[in-house]
Design a protein that fits this description.
The protein is built from 31 helices and 34 strands. By secondary structure, it is α/β, with parallel strands linked by helices.
Length: 971
C-alpha cells in the first residue's frame, strides 16, 4: 500500500469508527484487512515524502513523527495539504472528509480521519441537479448611488428572487434579496444598540457562511464601514491568528470585531489588547440584541467609504484600500458591461470573501446584476478541486473566476474517475486573474476539459487590483486567450516586447489581459515617469472612476501610490494592440496560492537569527513548474561552513518562516558573505538575486572582491550608458519627427493654397503625407484599397485615435477627398485657408442647431460626386476604445444614395496619443472595407448604415467597444 515503516514507528490508534473503516478498507483492498499500523505508516511515509519533494534542502534535517506539525515541521501550505490528501485517498482508497484539510494539525489527525472515513459515498455526478437559471429581470439599478440602494432596489422589484445559494456539507442555504435585507437590518439594529456610529470601522473575521453576508450588509445598513479580514485556516490557530491580525485591526481603527460564535471568548481577549476595540461578538448575537427589531438603512453619500479592503498578507505594514460606494459601483457596472452580464447568467464561486475577487467580483457584482450566485467555501475547493467543476455542472453556471493555481490544480490533481458525467458546456466566462497567468495552464485546462463540454474560448486572462476595486482590464468575451510570444533577451535587455516566431528559442509567452474597462485608462511609463510607446515595457499606471483615494491611515504609502491623476499598480507590463500584457512586478511581493507575501517581513525576522548576517537576507519568489505558482526562496548570507551548523541554521530559518508565513520556506539557500546583491545605496536587488538563483549561479565559487568590483562597475556603466543612449534616441526621434512635420507643412501649405486645380492640390498633399511617414519611419500598410470607388460620391468613415489620423488617410487615398472638420478651424489663420483649398466641409461638433443645415450641405457634396471623409466619433481621446458614432455621415449617405466605406485605422494612437506631444516609433495600418449600400433614404436607413459600419470598424480596429448598453442615441 505505502512504503517502508516510519523512523519513529506507528502509534497504536483506537477509534469507534475503526471497525467500519477496516471493513471498507478490506473490501477495497481485495479482502486484505488494513490495520491501524499500516494506515499510520502510510500517512507518515506519504507526508514525509511530500515534504522532501517540496523542501529538498531539508533532506538531512527533517525529523518528524505522527505528532509533528503539518505546517511547521512538514512545511505543508494549503496547496501541499491538497496534494497530501489526494495521495492518501489514492493509497488508502478512501474518501477523506473535506474538513480534514483545515482541521488536521498532525499526521495522527489524518490517520483518525482515514479510519473514520465513509466508503461508498456518492460521487459528485450522482448529486441532484439544482438549476439556478432564474431568467431575465426588467432592469438593473442604474440610478442607485450606494450599495444599500442597490439591495433596496432589488427588494422593491423581486424580493423573493434567489440571490445566493450557499453550498455546505450540512445542506444548501438559499438566500433571497428580502432575506438578506431583513437579516442585515436586524444586525444593524444590534450594532446601533452597541453604539456603532456611522463611519465606524467594523471588522469581519467570518468564514464563508450566511453570517458573513448578513454581517457585511448589516454594517452597511447601520452606516458603518465593513473591514473583511481573513479567518484562521484552522480553528486550533485562532489565538495566534488573531494576534497576527492585530496590526490590521489597529490600522483600521476597528471599534467592533465580528467573529463566529465559538470564537468569541478568544477574540474578546484580543479586544483588551487593542485600543478602541471594545468587544467581539457574533452575528446571531447582534441580531438577537436588536430591541426594536429592524431599522431603516442609514443614508450614505456616494463618495462615503463603503469598504476597507486589506490586501491579503498585509500584516506587517497594513495597507487598507479605501473604496467608496461610487468606486465600487463604477467597477461592477464596468465589469458587467465588458463581460456582457445579464440576469440569466449564474455565477459560481469558491473564492474567499475577504478578498476583492470573491467579495466584489463574485458576490457584489452578482448582487448588482441580479445574477444568482452559488457560493461555497475555499476549503471545499482546496480539499476537492473537482467540487468547483461539479458546482458549475449542477447549477448550470455561466461565469466563474479563480487564480491561475486553481486551474492548474484541476488539471493536475483531479482524476478522470471523479469527472464521469461532468458537463461544463454552460460555462461561458472562465476568468483567470489575481496572480500571474500561465499560458501553459490555459492550454492544458482547455485540452483536459474539452471532452466535458468546456470551450477554450471561455478562458479569459484578466487584470485587476484592490486599488481599482477589483477589475481593470478584460478581454472581449468569447475570444479566448491571446498569447504574445516575445524575445526574452529583448525584453530583459532593451525592455521591448519583440515578437518572435513559434520555433524561436529563448522566447517567453505573455498572455493579453485585454483592454481597460470602460471609463478606465492604463498607461506605461519609464523609470522617469514618461509614457512609452507600443510594445515597450514599463510601470503600469491607471486611472478611472474605480480608483481608490488611497490607503487608510497611511499617508506615506498613499503618496507613493499617486502620480498626479494616475495611480501606480506596482506591476510591469506593455501595451500591444491596445491591450495590456503584464510581465512582472515592481514591488517584490510574492503571490502564492492567492496569498500575498511581503519579502521584507520575513527578511527582518531571518536577519535577526544568530549565524545570519543582518541586512544580508533576500526573500523572493521562484516559479514552481509543478504548481504553476511561486515558491518562497530565502537567500541568506552566513559565515558558517560546518555542515551540522548549516543544517541547524536552515532549521531555524524554516521555523522563523513558519512563524511569519504559517509554513516554512520552499527553499533556503545559505551563501557566503557578499553574495546577496544590493544597489550602491544598500537596497536589496531581489530581482537580480532571483535571476542568479534560477540560473543556478548562487552556489558557485565566490569571486574575488576585485573581480566583483570591476564587474559591478562595468555592469553599472554599461546599464547607465544604455539608458542614456535609449533616452537620447527617443529625444532624437521626437526632434526629427517634429522637424519633419514642420518641413512637410512648410511645403504643403503654399502648394495647396497656390495650386489652381483640386486634383493637383490633393496629389501634393498625398505625396507629402507619404514622404512624412517615410521620414519618421512610420510605415503605413494599406489593405482593401480596391474597394475605394474610383469616381462618384461616397462617404468614408474612419475611427479617430490620434492627431495623425487625417494625415494617414491622406497618405492612403489616391483620389481627392473632402474632410468633414469642426467649424472652429475655419477661423484659424493657418488651418483655415489650407482646409478651404482642400474643400473641407465645416460643421458644428454638436449636432443640432446648424447640424441639419450642415448635414444637407454634406449630402449635396456627396451627390456632386465627392468622396467625403468623416470621423464619426466626433473627437479623439487618449484612452483606447471605439466610441459611439454620430449620425451625420450616415444621414448624408442615405439621403444621397451613396455608399458608406468603413475604414479602420490602427497604430496612430501609439505613435502620437491624444493630449500628448511626445511621439513614439510605430507602424500604421489602414484597412478599407467593402462599400455598404444604403437600404433606403430615410432615417431608419441611416441608423442601419451606422450600425453596419461601426460593427465592421470595431472588428478591425483592435479596440474595445465603448458604446453604452442599448446603443447610441438616435441622433
Amino acid at each position: 500500500m505505502c512504503g517502508a515503516a516510519p523512523q519513529h514507528g506507528p502509534a497504536h490508534l483506537t477509534t469507534e469508527a475503526a471497525p467500519r473503516a477496516r471493513a471498507g478498507a478490506r473490501a477495497l483492498q481485495g479482502g486484505h484487512e488494513v490495520t491501524h499500523e499500516e494506515i499510520a505508516r502510510c500517512v507518515l511515509d506519504t507526508s514525509r515524502e511530500l515534504a522532501l519533494e517540496l523542501h529538498p534542502h531539508r533532506r538531512r534535517s527533517l525529523r518528524v513523527s505522527l505528532d509533528s506539525s503539518l505546517d511547521r515541521d512538514f512545511g505543508l501550505d494549503s496547496l501541499g495539504r491538497v496534494e497530501l490528501l489526494v495521495r492518501l485517498e489514492r493509497s488508502l482508497r478512501v474518501r477523506l472528509p473535506e474538513t480534514l484539510l483545515a482541521e488536521a494539525a498532525t499526521p495522527r489527525d489524518l490517520v483518525a480521519g482515514a479510519l473514520a472515513a465513509e466508503h461508498g459515498a456518492p460521487s459528485p455526478g450522482e448529486l441532484p441537479l439544482r438549476d439556478l437559471v432564474l431568467g431575465p429581470v426588467a432592469a438593473i439599478p442604474e440610478d442607485a448611488r450606494t450599495l444599500t440602494e442597490v439591495l433596496a432596489w432589488h427588494c422593491d422589484r423581486h424580493p423573493e428572487r434567489t440571490h445566493l445559494l450557499l453550498e455546505r456539507e450540512s445542506g444548501d442555504v438559499e438566500i433571497s434579496y428580502r432575506a438578506l435585507r431583513d437579516a442585515a437590518a436586524s444586525v444593524a439594529a444590534g450594532l446601533r444598540r452597541r453604539r456603532v456610529e456611522p463611519g465606524t470601522s467594523v471588522a469581519l473575521m467570518l468564514p464563508t457562511s450566511p453570517e458573513f453576508f448578513f454581517a457585511f450588509f448589516g454594517v452597511l445598513w447601520a452606516g458603518a464601514v465593513p473591514v473583511p479580514i481573513y479567518p484562521p485556516f484552522r480553528p486550533a490557530q485562532l489565538e495566534e491568528h488573531l494576534r497576527r491580525q492585530a496590526g490590521i485591526l489597529a490600522n483600521a481603527d476597528a471599534r467592533l470585531l465580528i467573529v463566529p460564535g465559538e470564537a468569541r471568548g478568544v477574540a474578546a481577549l484580543l479586544g483588551a489588547q487593542i485600543q478602541g476595540l471594545r468587544v467581539a461578538t457574533a452575528t446571531e448575537l447582534l441580531a438577537s440584541e436588536a430591541e426594536a427589531g429592524a431599522i431603516d438603512a442609514a443614508r450614505a453619500h456616494p463618495d462615503a467609504t463603503v469598504l476597507l479592503q486589506y490586501t491579503s498578507g498585509s500584516t506587517g505594514r497594513p495597507k487598507g484600500v479605501v473604496l467608496s460606494h461610487a468606486n465600487l459601483l463604477a467597477n461592477v457596472r464596468a465589469m458587467g458591461k465588458s463581460l456582457e452580464v445579464t440576469a440569466s447568467d449564474v455565477f459560481v464561486s469558491w473564492l474567499p470573501l475577504y478578498h476583492d475577487m470573491g467579495l466584489i467580483g463574485a458576490w457584489l457584482g452578482s448582487l448588482y446584476h441580479a445574477v444568482p450566485a452559488a457560493i461555497s467555501s475555499p476549503l471545499r475547493f482546496l480539499s476537492r478541486p473537482e467540487s468547483w467543476l461539479w458546482a458549475l455542472h449542477r447549477r448550470r453556471g455561466t461565469i466563474s473566476a479563480a487564480p491561475n493555481f486553481a486551474y492548474e490544480l484541476c488539471v493536475r490533481r483531479v482524476d478522470d474517475a471523479a469527472l464521469a458525467g461532468l458537463d461544463l458546456s454552460s460555462w461561458r466566462l472562465a476568468l483567470n486573474g489575481s496572480e500571474p497567468v500561465s499560458p501553459d495552464t490555459l492550454r492544458r485546462f482547455a485540452e483536459r476539459f474539452a471532452r466535458y463540454g468546456f470551450r477554450k474560448e471561455a478562458l479569459m486572462p484578466v487584470y485587476g487590483l484592490a486599488e481599482c476595486a477589483v477589475g481593470l482590464a478584460f478581454p472581449p468575451p468569447g475570444r479566448g486567450p491571446v498569447i504574445d510570444r516575445i524575445s526574452r533577451l529583448a525584453l530583459a535587455r532593451d525592455g521591448v516586447a519583440q515578437p518572435v516566431g513559434g520555433a524561436a528559442s529563448g522566447a517567453v509567452e505573455v498572455p493579453s489581459c485585454g483592454a481597460p474597462l470602460p471609463g478606465h485608462e492604463i498607461r506605461i511609463v519609464d523609470p522617469a515617469g514618461r509614457e512609452v510607446g507600443e510594445r515597450h515595457q514599463g510601470r503600469v499606471q491607471f486611472r478611472g472612476p474605480s480608483a481608490t483615494a488611497g490607503y487608510f491611515h497611511n499617508e506615506s504609502l498613499t503618496r507613493d501610490l499617486r502620480v498626479g491623476e494616475w495611480l501606480e499598480s506596482g506591476d510591469l507590463g506593455y501595451v500591444a494592440g491596445g491591450e495590456i500584457h503584464v510581465t512582472g512586478r515592481t514591488k517584490d511581493m510574492i503571490k502564492r496560492a492567492g496569498r500575498n507575501i511581503y519579502p521584507h517581513e520575513l527578511e527582518e525576522v531571518v536577519g535577526d537569527l544568530p549565524g545570519v548576517r543582518k541586512g544580508c537576507v533576500a526573500v523572493f519568489g521562484g516559479f514552481d513548474p509543478e504548481t504553476r505558482t511561486e515558491r518562497v526562496v530565502v537567500l541568506a548570507e552566513t559565515r558558517e561552513t560546518e555542515p551540522g551548523a548549516r543544517d541547524a541554521l536552515r532549521r531555524r530559518i524554516d521555523e522563523a518562516a513558519a512563524r511569519v508565513l504559517d509554513t516554512p520556506a520552499d527553499d533556503v539557500v545559505l551563501v557566503p558573505p557578499h553574495t546577496v546583491l544590493k544597489t550602491s545605496s544598500g537596497k536589496l536587488r531581489r530581482a537580480a538575486c532571483r535571476e542568479l538563483y534560477e540560473r543556478g549561479a548562487l552556489l558557485g565559487r565566490p569571486r574575488t572582491l576585485a573581480w566583483q568590483v570591476a564587474r559591478l562597475a562595468a555592469t553599472g556603466t554599461w546599464a547607465r550608458a544604455r539608458a542614456w543612449a535609449q533616452r537620447l534616441a527617443e529625444l532624437s526621434y521626437a526632434a526629427a519627427f517634429w522637424a519633419s512635420l514642420v518641413l512637410v507643412a512648410a511645403l504643403a501649405w503654399p502648394l495647396v493654397v497656390a495650386l489652381p486645380r483640386a486634383h493637383w492640390r490633393w496629389s501634393a498633399l498625398h505625396g507629402l503625407a507619404r514622404a512624412f511617414l517615410a521620414l519618421v519611419r512610420a510605415p503605413l500598410r494599406v489593405t482593401g484599397r480596391e474597394g475605394v470607388p474610383a469616381r462618384g460620391g461616397a462617404v468614408l468613415v474612419v475611427n479617430h485615435a490620434s492627431y495623425l489620423d487625417g494625415l494617414a488617410v491622406a497618405a492612403a487615398l489616391e483620389r481627392p477627398a473632402r474632410f468633414v472638420v469642426k467649424r472652429e478651424l475655419a477661423a484659424q489663420r493657418f488651418a483655415g485657408p489650407f482646409l478651404r483649398r482642400l474643400g473641407a466641409l465645416f460643421v458644428e461638433r454638436v449636432e443640432g442647431g446648424r447640424g441639419a443645415a450642415d448635414a444637407q450641405h454634406t449630402a449635396e457634396a456627396v451627390r456632386a460626386g465627392a468622396l467625403v471623409v468623416f470621423f464619426p466619433e466626433g473627437t479623439l481621446y487618449r484612452e483606447p476604445g471605439l466610441r459611439p458614432f454620430h449620425l451625420g455621415a450616415f444621414v448624408a449617405a442615405a439621403s444621397s444614395g451613396a455608399p458608406v466605406l468603413p475604414t479602420a485605422l490602427r497604430g496612430t494612437r501609439s505613435v502620437l496619443r491624444g493630449d500628448q506631444w511626445f511621439p513614439r516609433r510605430g507602424e500604421l495600418e489602414l484597412r478599407f472595407g467593402e462599400p455598404l449600400q444604403p437600404k433606403g433614404s430615410d432615417f431608419a436607413s441611416a441608423i442601419d448604415l451606422r450600425a453596419r459600419a461601426r460593427r465592421w470598424i470595431l472588428d478591425q480596429c483592435g479596440e474595445i467597444d465603448l458604446e453604452p448598453p442599448g446603443g447610441p442615441e438616435p441622433g
